[in-house]
Design goal:
- The complex is a heterotrimer of chains A (335), B (308) and C (315).
- With 335 residues, chain A is an alpha/beta fold.
- Chain A contains 13 helices and twelve strands.
- In chain A, the strands form two sheets. Chain A has an eight-stranded mixed β-sheet, with helices on both faces. Chain A has a four-stranded antiparallel β-sheet with strand order 2-1-4-5, with helices on one face.
- In chain A, strand 11 and strand 12 form a beta hairpin.
- The longest helix of chain A has 18 residues.
- The relative contact order of chain A is 0.13.
- Chain B is mostly helical.
- Chain B has a domain of 188 residues: MetI-like (MetI-like fold), CATH 1.10.3720.10.
- Chain B contains 13 helices and no strands.
- In chain B, helix 4 crosses helix 10 and helix 10 packs across helix 11.
- Chain C is an all-alpha fold.
- The longest helix of chain C has 38 residues.
- Chain C is flat, with a radius of gyration of 28 Å.
- The chains are: A alpha/beta (335), B mainly alpha (308), C mainly alpha (315).
- Chains in contact: A-B, A-C, B-C.
- At the A-B interface, helix 2, helix 4 and helix 7 of A face helix 8, helix 9 and helix 13 of B.
């Protein structure tokens, strides 16, 4: 069993003031032990919602699908059962540490809380362990920081505290939801390398939610590309970066500025905006923005096509019937 | 923190000075004097004016009055002839304070409880019940509530004594009537701030730690939701105070409020003046204490010295 | 099974016109239309609006519906009722009954409502105007002007405005104008604070900076750009000030320094009602019910407006 987390055909909806929003549609992916899996997509593509719904942290409706954690079906777990998983077996880091930490509680208590809950520690044991954790995530003067509040800390420090909280009970999976988006570039690198180091020390898997392909290239083993609530392409980093098979993935890659390009290079963007999650399109969600749009794409969702054991994408361009069109539109097999 | 205290202190002192001046000169501005009625002969009037120091120039009177205030002399009542205002305050204030504290405690318990329950049962029957109670409490004037309570529970049902303030049963209706607007205010505020906190990221973090619901509720949600409540404690003392005027009058509680209302009707200016300034000082001190509490409770202020 | 021809057709490329991706957005309602539609969807606010309209209409036509004047006493009738122990309560001739002086309560209640509403609306509007002007000046000019106004507000705010109102009422004597004056002078603090805050926020927006760079006069900027953008909070605050002013008047009347007789207001009717509560409860209950309806509907309409104008606040 080398899959620690497995999501199969998961669909998630929200009831909002304006109607039902289908945030995640038929998503399947798995997380292997000790790997870093990146989930990449524009904001609003449902990547955060999907991961939070796995922990049942958002009030949403599960329309279909199942979730397996460590060989156990946790799809129907109630809140009490989830409490035993959250924090102790799966930790999560949120994007904005400023708002994600309690402003009126001392930093130390926010860390030791979780230790006392899951590891039956006494107050003194928890305090010692929390101090260790603060040192482990690279915070100087832990004794002093332990008694402070978050507004005393810098952005990078706060994110380190978040990491300490998430990793307090040595979870098997760490979900990092845009861990560096709110930070300066130099701090971003520090936090990412800290995560990489801690992953080795603690032997855990990481799900890295991000829209920053640069971060992904450096740290992820495998990548899930999400668009409008659906994974459109899944593969090893190498596959995604060198042999992208979905037009959306290609669009994303084309929009990264490259340092190694010869001479002047035009930075391309993907025209248009993501579709309205209130009224999803019947066919491919990317259809209105796609350079390779065909008639079939409008009404029929594309099947998943496997390119290798680990690499698959969902696009009609790979259908047998599209051979002629591929040539006509100038689809290249590799970039 | 020190700067914060000094600033608050300075504002408090100026507030009191302004209030004293406004009250003093406003009352001097009223045409006629308390002894211009037909029951006084000219000679008597002259004598009374001299006795009360009203024959001196206005500015001099003001400074004398301020000096007297500093030495704890609030003047002498005109209606209760010869009785020092301080004596009236000393006998009546404890009653008002007793009523006020009861009402505040009741409002804190009921208001916070109602607000928390409403937020936890958002959109359900309990929520609507608390909304209805708070809307009624905010919108229906306290003298309507007080007189209705009196009519229903004392006159019609006869369960509770109609008026006065001598036993526990006597305190029930005045306490409820005085507390109701405050309950409503607390419940409303608590509900909104609870809902805000429930949706906040740090509660999500607390949930992601796998904490028990009760633990999250007490140490993260309620604790943080209480903060905005501290900010309205100042206005709350003020509204309890103005509320006490009517509630004490209706239930014949021999407190300061009743004296204040009576002094308006008997045009006992020196009593009005003394009581107003006493109220002002009381409120200013209360506000100062509330500011201090707020500074202690919210670590953001404690260090930064600014709100937010 | 699709035949070959169909398959070929399905896989033909589609020319997407330029704008198609952008056109996926749903149509945007204008701000005020959006606000109105949200307000109309709010049941409590709509019911309140209708109820309030009924009360307002009754305040206008109510006193004219009966032949009795609200001031005319009928002591004989009152004395008769008192001696015979007859009811002074609602009857065929007097729909709301009579008071202890034999005056028709129907006429009095609606007349009182009229005065209460008049005071509420006028005082609230004057308060709002003063508040907006002070807030604009403080927020727009900043510096020592701002400092001065804000400190003044802090100082005035420390004492409940009712105490100031009572003092002003004692100086000017009771009457319609003194009440309006007293309420107007003391009730603008909250509005001024709100408007100032909003303007401080708006002041640094790019379009204001642009207008300033074009040497537009500050007054034009205020009237054309700043105040329209504060409209939301102004309306909400105004709608809350109306019940506030009605309450204050009733409170003053209750203390005996409100409107002088023969004028009447709901507060005054209630305060006489309380003294007659034991024997003639209708004198207390009817005006209490009217003022409660008035305050409740105004409050709910204010809440509805606030939710409609700022959907973020909706909980």
């Amino acid at each position: 069993m080398d899959e620690i987390l497995k999501v199969d055909d998961l669909s998630i909806s929200f009831q909002t003031y304006n109607g039902e929003v289908q945030a995640v549609r038929h998503a399947s992916f798995s997380l292997k032990r000790k790997e870093v899996l990146a989930i990449v997509g524009e904001s609003g593509s449902g990547k955060s919602v999907m991961m939070q719904s796995i922990l049942k942290l958002t009030p949403c409706i599960r329309k279909s699908g199942s979730i397996w954690f460590d060989g156990e079906d946790i799809t129907e777990f109630d809140d009490q059962q989830m409490q035993k998983i959250r924090g102790s077996k799966i930790g999560i880091i949120f994007q904005d540490a400023m708002t994600s930490l309690n402003p009126t509680m001392r930093i130390g208590r926010q860390i030791s809380e979780s230790l006392r809950r899951h590891q039956n520690m006494t107050a003194e044991q928890a305090r010692k362990r929390a101090l260790e954790l603060l040192t482990q995530v690279g915070i100087n003067h832990p004794e002093q920081r332990y008694r402070q509040y978050i507004h005393n800390l810098s952005g990078g420090m706060r994110q380190r505290v978040m990491i300490a909280i998430a990793l307090a009970c040595k979870p098997k999976v760490l979900i990092a939801d845009e861990p560096t988006t709110a930070l300066d570039v130099t701090i971003q690198a520090q936090i990412m390398s800290l995560l990489g180091r801690l992953k080795e020390e603690l032997d855990c898997s990481i799900v890295l939610i991000t829209h920053d392909l640069g971060v992904v290239a450096a740290y992820a083993d495998r990548i899930v590309v999400m668009y409008a609530g659906q994974p459109v392409e899944v593969g090893a980093s190498r596959d995604i970066f060198y042999h992208p098979q979905h037009p959306y993935t290609r669009g994303l890659l084309a929009s990264i500025p490259r340092l190694d390009a010869d001479g002047a290079q035009e930075l391309t963007s993907i025209a248009g905006t993501p579709p309205d999650a209130l009224n999803p399109l019947p066919g491919c969600a990317f259809y209105p923005r796609c350079k390779y749009a065909m008639r079939i794409c409008q009404d029929e969702a594309a099947p998943n096509k496997n390119f290798s054991e680990s690499h698959c994408a969902a696009c009609h361009i790979h259908d047998a019937g599209a051979a002629e069109t591929r040539v006509k539109l100038g689809w290249r097999e590799t970039l | 923190m020190f700067k914060y205290i000094c600033k608050r202190l300075l504002i408090s002192v100026i507030t009191l000075l302004v209030l004293c001046a406004v009250v003093f000169f406003a009352i001097k501005f009223i045409p006629g004097d308390p002894f211009s009625g037909p029951e006084y002969t000219d000679a008597m009037r002259q004598k009374m004016l001299e006795l009360y120091g009203l024959d001196k120039p206005v500015l001099q009177q003001f400074f004398t009055y301020m000096g007297n205030l500093l030495s704890g002399n609030f003047g002498i009542s005109i209606y209760y002839t010869g009785k020092p205002v301080v004596d009236i305050i000393a006998t009546a204030f404890p009653q008002s304070l007793d009523l006020g504290i009861r009402a505040l405690l009741f409002a804190l318990i009921a208001g916070i409880g109602l607000g928390v329950l409403a937020a936890l049962h958002r959109g359900k029957a309990l929520d609507y019940m608390s909304i209805v109670i708070s809307i009624i409490g905010i919108s229906i004037p306290s003298f309507v509530v007080a007189s209705m309570l009196q009519y229903i529970f004392a006159v019609v049902l006869g369960w509770l004594p109609v008026a006065r303030y001598t036993s526990f049963a006597h305190t029930i209706m005045p306490t409820v009537a005085l507390a109701l607007p405050t309950i409503a205010r607390f419940a409303r505020l608590m509900r909104t701030s609870m809902l805000e906190v429930i949706d906040s990221d740090y509660v999500k973090t607390a949930r992601s730690k796998g904490l028990k619901k009760r633990q999250i509720l007490l140490s993260h949600q309620v604790r943080n939701s209480l903060l905005p409540l501290v900010t309205v404690l100042g206005p709350t003392t003020a509204s309890l105070l103005t509320g006490s005027f009517v509630v004490e009058s209706i239930f014949a509680v021999p407190g300061l409020g009743k004296f204040f209302v009576d002094s308006i009707n008997t045009q006992d200016y020196s009593l009005i003046m003394g009581l107003t300034i006493f109220y002002g000082a009381f409120l200013v001190i209360m506000n100062f204490i509330v500011d201090l509490i707020y500074g202690i409770v919210d670590p953001r202020i404690r260090i930064g010295g600014t709100k937010g | 099974m699709i035949d070959a021809q169909d398959r070929k057709y399905l896989y033909e490329p589609v020319e997407l016109d330029e704008g198609i991706a952008e056109r996926m957005d749903k149509p945007q309602l204008s701000y005020w239309k959006d606000v109105a539609s949200r307000f109309f969807k709010n049941k409590a606010a709509m019911v309140s609006t209708i109820l309030l309209l009924i009360v307002v209409i009754m305040a206008i036509v109510g006193p004219m519906m009966v032949e009795y004047d609200y001031r005319t006493t009928d002591t004989k009738l009152a004395a008769k009722m008192r001696i015979t122990g007859g009811s002074m309560g609602p009857s065929e001739e007097h729909w709301f009954g009579i008071d202890t002086l034999g005056r028709d309560l129907w006429a009095r209640v609606w007349m009182g409502t009229r005065y209460s509403l008049l005071i509420g609306f006028v005082a609230a509007i004057v308060q709002a105007l003063i508040g907006i002007i002070m807030g604009c000046i403080a927020g727009f000019f900043g510096g020592w002007v701002d400092m001065l106004i804000m400190r003044a507000i802090d100082i005035l705010n420390a004492i409940p405005y009712l105490i100031y109102v009572i003092i002003i009422m004692m100086v000017f004597g009771s009457g319609l104008l003194p009440i309006l004056l007293a309420l107007a002078l003391t009730g603008w603090l909250g509005m001024a604070r709100l408007v100032r805050g909003q303007i401080l926020m708006l002041k640094n927006e790019d379009y204001i900076l642009a207008a300033r760079n074009l040497n537009t006069s500050p007054w034009v900027i205020m009237l054309k750009h700043l105040i329209p953008n504060c409209m939301g909070i102004i309306i909400v605050s105004l709608s809350m000030a109306i019940p506030g002013a009605i309450f204050s008047e009733a409170y003053l009347s209750f203390l005996g320094i409100g409107l002088p007789a023969p004028m009447t207001s709901l507060g005054q009717l209630i305060s006489t009602g309380i003294t007659e509560m034991r024997n003639y409860p209708h004198q207390l209950i009817i005006p209490s019910a009217v003022i409660s309806i008035l305050m409740l509907t105004l409050q709910l309409i204010g809440d509805g407006l606030r939710d409609a104008l700022d959907p973020k606040l909706r909980k």
